[in-house]
Every structure is written in structure tokens, then in C-alpha cells.
Fold:
Amino acid sequence: MKKSIILPVFNESGNISQLINKIYKSISSEDEIIVVDDGSTDNTSEEVKKFDCKLIVHPENKGKGAAMISGIKISSGDLVIFMGGDGQDDPSEIKNLLKGIDEGYDYVIGSRFVSGSSNETKRYSDKAILPINKIGNNALTFLINLLFGQNITDSQSEFKCFRAEKLKSLELISSRYEIETELLIKSFRKKFKIKEVPVHRYERLHGKSYLFDVPFGRFIFGLKVLKTIILGFIFWR
Structure:
């Protein structure tokens, strides 16, 4: 099956070239890489143009959700894979997600927290996932599981794979990071077959995350996710 790998990016010069090279080693010639540059002010787009990728450029920053939706609209694969553009996800683990698809699942989540083999070492460091971010993720994941009767371990994972026809049946509206929660809840409501598989999370080599680079960023993010959870619980059927 043809795969579309969608990379929403913002100011990832220094990371994006290495990531694309690694992805090429894990996909076939029929697959496509779609990079959505969400208003970068650095050389991200210029680096991407060196590769045989589809490139969408938002003139201004619209948010991760808007970038993902833009990528979905032009994707042509039977499967859609999302990865972060900062190089913290390992493209060699795409095969872990595809194994879940081969087992008949519609939506496979690359979880940083789900149990893997009994003798494995920790799959991330405190620099790859800040302790405060893990606490927030765990709290939101607990609430989602409680309200929707699920047993997910990593509700905010950005490394995931969908069957394209299932993904495109969702009417996505989130423009920013709450898109991860919207995808999960709407997949619950559509009764998609969902599986989590273990993946690693690595420290970024260059730059920094802009997710919380605003005053009260974590608080605002948490409120937006809570709003999405409430909307999903009350209105989305």
C-alpha cells in the first residue's frame, strides 16, 4: 500500500534535512513525503526543496492542526503517517506502525509509554520528554480514558498511522496542538480499531520547541485540550 508521510514543521532548519534522509531509508519509491511549512521564518522550505517532496507553505503560522489538515488534503496514499518535523521520532520505527495496520487496525499510535518487551530499557530521556510535559500528558490521557472508556497510554503522541479512507472520514476542525486529542476522540466515536505500539523518543538536535514558547503556554494548551475533550464528550457522535 502506498504511504503518505506528513510532516508539519515550523522553523526546523537543521533538523528537516536529516529527518527526510532517514525517512527515505524506511519507505519505498512509490511512497510520498509531504512537508507543510507552517509559516517558518528560517530556511526550512529551502532545505525541503532539495528533496523530491511535496511542499506546502503557509504564508503565516496557522498551527499544527491546520498544517496536518493541509497535508491530508493533498495526500494520495492508502496509508497516512504523521511524524514530528523535529527529528525526535525515529523513521526506522515506521515498520512498527505498519505491522499494526497489517493486523487489521485502522489507527496505530506510536506510544512513548506503552509497555514493550519485558527486558527493554527506557525509551526516552527527561530531555526528550520534560517531566512536566509527561505529567500533563498523563493527566489528559487519564481524563480521556475515564470519559470515553478507553485504555490509551499516550494521547498526545504525534507519531501515528491511519488508513487513509478512515482518516479522511473525520471532519477535523482543530488548528493547533489539540488536533491530537480531536483525532483520538473522533476515532473513538467512529469506532475505529485502534492499537498502540512502542516507539522511542529522542532529543532534538537543533532548535527548540515553540509549543510552550508563549506566556502561560502550557496552561493555554491544557485549556484548549480540555475544551476539545468536553466538545467531544458532549457533541461529537
